[in-house]
Amino acid sequence: MLSLKLSALALFAAAPLFAQSAATLHSATDLAQVETRLTATAKSSPSGVGIDTIDDFGSARTLMVVRVHTGDAELHDRWADQMYITKGTVTLVTGGAMKGGHTLAGQEGETRGPSVDGGQEIVLHVGDTVHVPAGVPHWVKVPPGTTTTYLIFKEK
To answer: Signal peptide position in this chain (predicted)?
Structure first.
């Protein structure tokens, strides 16, 4: 019985070693500043996209994306994407087959292509969220003349 109590005490005493990380906060003001910067980047970029990694914890990442026009289709071998639309509307095409896909140099498992054929189209509005599993081609289509902002929560 004493051995069991000592084992429980040892586990309890070790717990703070694993619980030392503080929460990471990004205020609405902070995110609005990032969005303003990314909007300027997207509007001045031939790709029409501004993207920034807000958090990177190794197996989980948070990104903010601003798009002013449709970009390339994507496929991530190891990362699932959870998208949350914060501004605008997009049509997300998932599944199907990526046309003309090529692996990004230096980014194993990351494929880009000009479009997706035969996928399911889903219209997403502010407040909508969607999960795209790893290995599924997806393509964000932005209506002409609009700006769309969304957060991506990536997880391995």
So the answer is: 1-19
pLDDT tens, position by position, 53-104: 999 999 999 999 999 999 999 999 999 999 999 999 999 999 999 999 989 9
Instruction: Judge whether 91 and 141 are in contact, CB under 8 Å.
Output: yes
| Domain contains 21 | no
What's the CATH number where 150 sits?
2.60.120.10
Q: Which helix (H) or strand (E) holds 102?
A: strand 102-103
pTM of the full structure: 0.84
Q: Number of structural domains, the chain?
A: 1
Partners of 120 in the β-ladder: 94
- 130 found inside a domain: yes
**Residue 145 within any structural domain of the chain:** yes
